[in-house]
Write a structure and sequence with these properties.
4-stranded antiparallel beta sheet; alpha+beta; 200 residues; rod-shaped
């Protein structure tokens, strides 16, 4: 009977298995290092890219904030200019209103039959003092005043007979009170609320 010694074969196979396992281990370790290096490089690249984007965004935000400050200053300047223009326009309107009022009063006077002695205007209320040939002329003057665009209402305060002996004439002195467009309407808060019957 023949006997074969298998120990050297088994020892060689065992060494080969160990060598294969070591090779697989080191190969896996190398692959793991390569993957980790790739991921690290990729992460660093993305991080640098994100940092660059952040810097760009911060620069853009700084520009926008600067533009917003400039826009706010421009808006404030425009508001100040508009306020000044409104004041100038209001003054011009009031000046033109008083000039127009005097023009309307002068045009409403019946020529050769009525003479004005005094005019005074305060807070939109015009007081006219004068002399007319008769009461009909005073009535005509009041009608003419009511037709003007500057006067909204005319009220006769009093009339009195006047004698001019040097001219051998008699006339009618009068005092008128007129509301004009220069009278400012009272603020809404100052108006009295109406009751249930509609009375103030």
């Amino acid at each position: 009977m023949i006997r074969i010694n298998l120990l050297p074969f088994r020892a060689a196979r065992k060494k080969e298995n160990i060598r294969q396992e070591l090779s697989c281990y080191f190969l896996g370790l190398v692959l793991l290092i390569l993957v980790m290096t790739y991921l690290q490089v990729g992460s660093s690249g993305r991080l640098n890219h994100l940092k660059a984007e952040e810097q760009n965004v911060r620069k853009e935000l700084a520009v926008y904030e600067k533009n917003n400050r400039i826009a706010a200053r421009i808006k404030a300047n425009l508001k100040e200019i508009r306020d000044r223009l409104d004041i100038i326009h209001d003054l011009e309107q009031k000046k033109r209103g008083r000039l127009g009022l005097l023009t309307d009063v002068a045009l409403a006077v019946p020529e050769g039959r009525l003479w004005l002695q005094s005019l005074s205007e305060k807070e939109g209320l015009l007081t006219i003092n004068g002399t007319a040939m008769d009461n009909d002329t005073v009535a005509l003057f009041m009608t003419n005043l009511e037709k003007t665009p500057s006067i909204t209402s005319v009220d006769l305060k009093n009339t009195q007979l006047q004698d001019f002996p040097e001219y051998n004439l008699k006339g009618s002195g009068f005092l008128l009170s007129c509301e004009t467009i220069l009278k400012e309407a009272p603020p809404a808060s100052e108006k009295k609320p109406k009751d249930s019957k509609g009375q103030q």
